[in-house]
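User: My instructor asked us to take a sequence, write out its structure as tokens, and then describe one feature of it. I'm not sure where to start. Here is the sequence I was given:
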Amino acid sequence: MKIIALERGLDNLKAYLDSKGYYTVFADDISTAGILPSAFIYKDPNAVNQQLNIDSSFKNNTLLSTAEPDSGILLIYAKGISPEQIVYMIENRLYSPLF
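Assistant: Let's start with the prediction itself. The structure tokens for your sequence are:
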């Protein structure tokens, strides 16, 4: 099961992903939940740096390995992207621009 972390404020997207069978958690709950997500969805470009500084285990696992396509955390910038497109990106591990 893929675990998806979302920035606070993406409640509708979280509900949509939950309805599609994904296990979702707000990113600021990661350190207390002790989980490592396979994707981080954000709407504020500054959220990536802010969130990655919260939990060192989250930060240490964000580097994506080109040798292992399913390793690392997929970063998805949600602005202007439909929920269906986000699901496609998660399923196909397509990366979105950071800015």
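For the description part of your assignment, you could build on this observation: The chain has one domain: 3-92. Try explaining in your own words what that tells you about the chain.
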